[in-house]
Every structure is written in C-alpha cells, then in structure tokens.
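Build the 3D complex.
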Amino acid sequence: MLKVNNITKTFGGLTALEDVSLSVSPGSITGIIGPNGAGKTTLFNIITGLYTQSAGKVFLEGKNISYFPPEALAGLGMVRTFQNVELFGQMTVWENVMVGLHTKSSSGFFGCAFKLPRQIKEEKLIREKSMRWLDFTGIADIARMRADNLPFGKSRLLEISRALALEPRIILMDEPAAGLNSRETLQLAAVIRRIKELGITVVLVEHDMDLVMDICESIIVLNLGKKLAQGTPREVQENPEVIAAYLGED
Amino acid sequence: MITEEKRQVFIFLIFALALLAAPFFFRESYLLTVLVFIGIHTMLAVSLNLLMGYAGQISLGHAAFFGLGAYLSGILTTRFGLDPWLVIILAAICAAVVAFVIGFPILKLKGHYLAMATLGFGIIIYIFFNETVDWTGGPSGLPSIPSLQIGTIIFDNDLNNYYLVWIITLCVMLLSINLSQSRIGRALRAVHDSEVAARVMGINAWFLKVQIFTVSAFISAVAGSLYAHAMTFISPASFGFNFSVELVTMVVVGGLGSIYGSFLGAAILTVLPEFLRVFEDFDVVIYGFLLIIMNMFMPGGLISGLELLAQKVALKIKKKRPSDA
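Done.
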C-alpha cells in the first residue's frame, strides 16, 4: 500500500531521518512509535508532501509519489490529520466536512456563481454526504457549531470526519490521542477500528502505548532518526533494543 | 436548510427592491450622484472582499485594476472609437489577464510581503497613468469619454446612471453571494483559516488564490469602466494609493467576509468624506483611525455589530412575550 524507501532528511547540519525504509500493508492499522525527537512527525510530513526529503522515495500503491504536493496526494486518496488539529475555525462543523468533499465535486467559479442546475444538485449531495461522515464519528448533533468553539475531543473527531469525507484509501493520523481523556481515547479507538472496517489503511504516530498495542497490527519503532524495529505489538514489546531506547540505556 | 436559503433570497430581494426604489425618494441630483458612487464603490469593495474577506489575501493595489478598467474604456472609446459596451468586456478581460499573470508570482507571498508586492503593483500602474501622456492625458486627465447608450436611452444623467450602476452592482453582489456559499466559497475560507489543512483536503491553494485575484480584478475593472462613462472624465488621482487604502477601509469597516458588509462599508466611506471636507487632507488620518478602532472593538465589521444588535433585540422581544401574556 505505502512504501517508504531509504528516506533521509537533514535540516541544515541536523539529520532528522537517516535511511528510513518501511512498508504498510493494505487494510492494516500500523503504528509508528518512538521517543520524542525520533523523527516521527518529520516522516509523516515527508510522506504527506509537506516537507521534501533530502533523499529517498515514497510509493503509494506502486506509484512513485515522492515530492508530490499534498493537494495532489488528496486526489490519489491519501489524507492526514495533525497533531495540533488544523480545523477551519471560522466555519461550522458541517462546512468543515463539506470542504473534505472538495475533490469529490467539480463545480467551478462560473457554475457556483450562476447556480447552474448541476451545481445545485452537487451541493445537495455534498450536504448529505458530509452529514453521513458526521454521523460516522457521532458528532452530527453539533453540525452547526463554529469549529473554533469545540472542546478538544470533538475537534479531533471533526478532523477525522473531514479527512474521511475525502473517501481516502489511506489515512495518516499524527498523535490522534494526544490531549484526550481516557474515555475519549476509547471512543477514538472504536472509531479507528471502524475506519479499518471501511477498508481504509490507517497509519498513526502515537505516544499512548495502551492505544497502540491495543489497535495496531504492525508497529514501527523509530529512534534518533533511524528505524529500530518493525513487527507485531508483541514482537516489538519484547525487542531488547526497543526497551533500551525507551528506558534510556546505552 | 431550505428555510435558511429562502431567508437569504428574501433578504436579497428586499435589499434590491429598496435600492431600485431609492430614486423615488432621493430626487435631488446631488444625492443621486452620491448613490451612483456608492454603487461603484460597493462593486469594488465586494471584489476586494472576495480576496481579503474570503481568501484572506490582502491587496493594497486594487485601485490599479479599477484604473485599468477606467483608462482602457476611456482610451479605446475616445481614441479608437470602439463600441463602449464591447470595451467594458475587453477592459475587464485585460485587467483579469494582468491579474492572472502577476498573480502567479505574487500570490506565492504571504502577509506583509504580499501587501508590499500589491502596493508596488498599484504604484507602478499609477505612474504609468501619469507618465504615458500621449495615451492617458497624464496628470491633467482624459476628458470627453462618451456616455453609454442602449438604443435611445443615453446614460448621461444621474437617474439613468443610477439604474445602470446599481443593476450591475446588484448582479455582482448576487453572484458573489452565490459563490461564497458554494464549494468554491468554502475552499476560499478554508485557505483563509488553515492553508495547510486546505491543501491536505485537495485544494490547490495557490491556484485558487490566483483565480480569485483574477475574478476580483475583473469586477474592479468593470466598476472602473462604468465610472469612466458615468463621469466622462478621469484623471490618475482617482486611482492612486490613497484610494486603494480607502477600499481596504471599506471592506474592513463593513465586515470582512460579508457581501452586505461591503455595501455598508462602501456607503459609509462614500458619505463620510462629504462631512470630512472641513479636515481637507487630514481625511486619510481619519481613515487610519477608523481602521484601528474597527479592528480593536469590532473586528467583524459593522455588519457583525448589526447582527449582534438584531440578535439582542430578537432575544428581548422573545423574553417580553410570555410576561405580556
């Protein structure tokens, strides 16, 4: 599904990622873990086109997507969420999800300004479809609230709904459980499992080990910009190198 | 959602009817002239609002597109005798092409840098109007631009110009409202709120900004052409930096991201100078002061203030009813 080959990223003299390769199998939930500064978010930013790598390639379903900008990746079915939640704050919850359907609709400036019949039909479809995604994450009741007035847990769910509206084939989540309480984390785990049931491949960077061990089928461990291990939760937990990295031994 | 849509159609109809009926109450030629100016300024404010209020991109050179429309209309009709209506469309397309071409490099810039780039563009065009004396007449202006004409109706008096300008302005407003509530409008606001998230959602933010900049220039040029034909005389002073700032003030005072707000801002900033005549050249100081005050106390503009007021009144009426019974 997703293949990363020998990615290296340097910021000035600092090497954030060094020769990292990994692969994600279709339909799976894969977790990327590692101590702070391991390069997890940098890797995400490279895969999703926000950063450009110093070297290495990224493939999506066999297609070379290295250096593709994020707007092109959206069209290919790759979407992501952000660690600090990037919502469209001045828009309503509903409108946020409608933006997620941007690539699924095509009316242009002319059609929209003159309200051509095709645009009216498309707009109706956008409204219906986006509401379905709000239902999916269980936040349809707050559809008309302004996005920047939401409590943090709800804004996470909104960001996920918006990403799903794109009907992606792969979704990358950057620390989806950060800032959530335990009840919200459980809710999140259930949502992620249901995303997988839709046939969407899930990749997540996460610090919450309970969540990662619970929902991920495959785990990749990064440390100091290098890949340390890849395997099932059990394999990773028993890996002495991983234990050393987390406990800070030499 | 249907009721909300109907409410908006209703508001627009009332607004349009009120404006079309206005000449029956304001018969004085002076008042009609002011209303014609308000119409032209509304068109300009709406066009700038699409860029500033929706897409969140500043332009400190919008008077240049207004001027391009006016001068192209003036020059092509007086010196080449082309049909004025044809020229309006031609001028608008020219301004749009200019915007499209300069938009690609300058809309890569953000914030202050974009402000400086558009400012520079505005100044270049202004100098161009002043210096190409053979074409534009230079600082002394371009006189005897013909009035527009449809059949036997000649738009050479205030009443006819009022209807011409306002019918076109209302069309521009309606189309802009439609646009703002469509997928394009949402994409623009998305780019405004979080460009990175918008891009992740598949919106080509850069190209979208270039597109709205182009549309905005097109509308501004139409306003410029109408201005040239209504006034029959134009000079560079009307298209300088001061006017660009005035346009920004209209949009901010009226309300960023509100089409009716643009009308409000245009109306106030058109009427205000009539009262500020006593201050002469210090009117710019007052605009600046107005901008500061608005940003501090009413960042959503006057339109948001009015909406708040309406909500409070509605709440009071609701509260009163049960006690009355």
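The CA atoms of residues 63 and 206 of chain B lie 23 Å apart.
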